[in-house]
Amino acid sequence: NVPTIEDAPQSVTYFDINTGILLYATNSWFGVSFFHINEPDESFLGSGNPSPLPIKYSAHGGYKFLLNEEIDNEKSVSLAFNYRGQNKFDQLDIGGYYTRDIFNVGLWYRGIPFLKRYAPGYANNDAISIIVGFKTNIMSFGYSYDFTISRLGNSISNGAHELTVSYQFCQLGKLRKKLIFVPCPSF
User: Fold this and answer.
1) pLDDT tens digit at each of 187 positions of the chain
2) Which H, E and C letters describe 68-124, residue by residue?
C-alpha cells in the first residue's frame, strides 16, 4: 500500500543547523555560511521515503575603494561577490556600487556563463541587476530591477522589481561605547 498525499501529516517539523561568520575591516569584508548542516529529512510522507535537504553554502566578500578622504562628502567604489551553491547547482553574483554622499548606484550580474553549464543549451546565466538607493545614518532605501538574461527571458518573466527599506539597530555615536558590544559594519 503506497501512501498518498491524503495520508500525509498535516505538519512536519525538523531540526535544522546553520552557521556562518563575517570578518570585516574598515573597507573590506569576507564571510562564509553553511545551511542544513545536518541534512534534515524534509520528506512529506515520513520515514518511508527519506528526502535529505542538501547542504547549502555561500562565500561573500568585497572591498570599498575610497576616492576621497572627506567623511562628509564620501565618494567610493565598492566591488563585491556572493558565491552560493546547493547540491549540483551554484551561482556567482558579482557587482559594484558607486557611492557619492548619501546616494549610490550599482550593477550586478548573476550566473557563471563560461565555467559551467547544467545541460547542453542551458548556460548558467540568470540576470543583470540595476540598483539605486540612498541612506541616512540609520536608514537605507533602495530600488533594483533585474533584467532576466536566461532562457526564461524578459518576454516571459518581465524581470523583477524590488524595493528595500532597512533600519540599522546599532546606536551610532556616543551611545555605541556604552550599549553596543559588537559594532555594526558599514559597507
Assistant:
1) 566 656 555 677 788 999 999 999 989 999 999 999 999 988 766 556 788 899 999 999 999 999 987 766 779 999 999 999 998 888 889 999 999 989 999 999 988 766 666 666 666 778 899 999 998 888 999 999 998 887 666 566 678 899 999 988 765 555 555 555 556 666 5
2) CCCCCCCEEEEEEEEEEEECCEEEEEEEEEEEECCEEEEEEEEECCCCCEEECCEEC
